[in-house]
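Recall from the previous lesson that a structure prediction takes nothing but the amino acid sequence as input. Here we apply that procedure to Cutinase domain-containing protein from Trichoderma breve. The sequence below is the only information supplied.
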Amino acid sequence: MRGLALSLSLLAASSTAAAATQPTCAKGLYMVVARGSEEPAGTGVTGNLTSQIAARVPNSQVVPVDYPATLSDYEDSEGDGVKAMQTLLNNYGQACPGSKIAILGYSQGAQVSSDSVCGSAGEPFIDDKAMSDEVMNSVVAIAIFGDPTHVANLTYDRGTSVKDGLFNRSSASVDQCKKYASRIISYCDKGDIYCDSGSNLTVHHLYIDRYGDEIVDFVVSQYEKSTSTSSGSNATATAPFPTTKPTSGGGSGSNSTAPTRTGAPTISPTKGSGANMLTSSLMLGGLLTVLSAVSQML
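The prediction returns the following tokens.
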């Protein structure tokens, strides 16, 4: 009986842990943020924007993508970011249908965002698939800046750049992005070392100073258009990440090295969006089996 009690205890603990991994549905915006290269874990400089958005959209959540954001193994890092962002979006979309989602990304995080939404940019990056229409129906705004896969002259482009970025984006991926053109803004300025194939790293660090207010207004406006609920309630907004002065990001210092086209990364796949439900079901089935055995013994 002692062994049986231990088994029941372990099953109960495992079921509780599985339930804890389910996301909490936001009454406001669920903001998924991918930071720039070499920024500390968290939201990076983009936290300046999400704090302002959360102040205007009560009961919002800010969730940083947990990925390396390194330059030295850029392709692996970026691929890990796509896997992590898509997992967040899939899990939240499944748990909270009808909720409102915003995606924000800077530098490497901008490519993570665009690859997550539109599918892989193409070689040498891993062939990630685009997000499903079911999940994308909940995404009301996508705001990216300094994207190394920037494509010039698209309807959602902002800034002064007229050149493509450091990496090509495949025509199939561009076509997928165009499906969401009314929900995307992509900032790139002339001379940016990454998104404009230029030689000026300083330009790459100035997007929040130059366009921060526009980005905040865009995301808030997109949210307000998508919901009939007034955003002016008296509820307190959730802004868990501190505001920082955007003096760095996308590589620290003026001597940061741009990512190069090396071999395509090999990335271990992460669990799909249904993994948590499957795990919980198996645990419940095991628990019922044990309880049945107990009843027969009694």
